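Memo to structure team: turn this sequence into structure tokens by end of day. - J.P.
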Amino acid sequence: MSTTDIKEVVKEKYGQAALRATTGGSSCCGAAPASSDCCDPITSNLYDVSQISQIPEEALLASLGCGNPTALAKLNPGEVVLDLGSGGGIDVLLSARRVGPTGKAYGLDMTDEMLALANENKRKSGMENVEFLKGEIENIPLPDNSVNVIISNCVINLSADKDKVLREAFRVLKPGGRRAVSDVVTRGDISPTVRESILLWVGCIAGALDETEYRNKLAAAGFEQIDIEPTRIYRADDARDILTASGLDVNTIAADVDGKFFSAFVRAVKPGMAVF
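Reply from structure team:
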């Protein structure tokens, strides 16, 4: 499929996830049918009780993440944070509390339904140091050298042009700025059958980069101090429902899946002296 086709499918599926959240339904990485409870090993149990109590319920229900970048990223009072693919706003709201009233938390999303939900969650939270922007992560609508920290939660793997995403992230980061992203990463050879499934792409799996390729792309974009830390390693049985919903026989492709996909915390730094 073309880059445009992939974006349109992602928009549709994530728009549906936002609408489900507004009616009390939960989300997953997007491959499960709308009638499903959408609980899967990628998106479930990512936030602790103390974090859940800080945000509107709809923000949690709309979460399509594969990790918890706000728990792993170091955020300081007064910093500017940008969340790429911010969805219902859960990580933006949590980050805004961490950076405090002298800081700022931006969320960037291309889906109208998610932006509407995020702005409603912002209103419910009462937080003023939050702003949601409409746009694509390949073309970030912020100036050069304007952000201290970039976070993202299982979104970069959905892009068909990851090199451009990484170059844009590097551009908007200030010297010394940090990239602290949760993403799905692969290890070893993966069957083309899995790679080419658009539903799995939307489901946060097929678009994932190999860990070595991820490191190389980050370095090519200019980043240093690159580190990929696995946080959840997935087995074939973990992904059974997602794979079956996509029309794949789990038993047949188990060897291509088992232990080769994992959620990871991906860190990197833009060279230079840190600037507030």
